[in-house]
Amino acid sequence: MKKFLIVGLGNIGDKYENTRHNIGFKILDELATKEEITFESQKLGAISKFRFKGRTFILLKPSTYMNLSGKSVKYWLTKENIPLENLLVICDDLNLDFGSIRVKPKGSDGGHNGLKDINAVLQTQQYPRFRFGVGSEFSKGRQVDYVLGEWDSDENKLLPERLNKSIELIKSFGTAGLNNTMNAFNGT
Q1: Taking CA atoms, which of 37, 50, 84, 158 is between 20 and 30 Å from 30?
Q2: pLDDT under 50 in the chain at which residues?
Q3: 102 — alpha (psi -120 to 50), left (phi > 0) or beta?
């Protein structure tokens, strides 16, 4: 049986719930709602699982805060005996327009502190990641305020369709593979 660890990056706590930086959590929450499953607090994160087309998807929302996500990711990869190529890390990306999707097989952290910590703890950049564009509508020096800010009204109207697209992408990653998923979803 094939198992996949799908990690949504975010920060725990109500004050972060609807922020741009928490898009990883938001996507996994939407997927859990659609699959009618719930998250359970476990070691270093909230976990939920579902099966789809003979695959097991393990959803992880690290409880370590964004900048220390690596410890949680490593623990669950090891515990569930999941190879790196079956890991998908979901994060926000300031370099992509709002709602844009980019899936890559590997890469640098691109200035993202969650990815930076995962790269350091796993001692590799060789794992798939799904970057969700949050845009860059902020003035110089206001980056932190922007990513920790809540979605504006226009973004909120468009989010449901983008969340559905993200769920399709996750299922495709587990069933059709990374290359087919990149071809089908990058730039959509």
Answers
A1: 84
A2: none
A3: beta
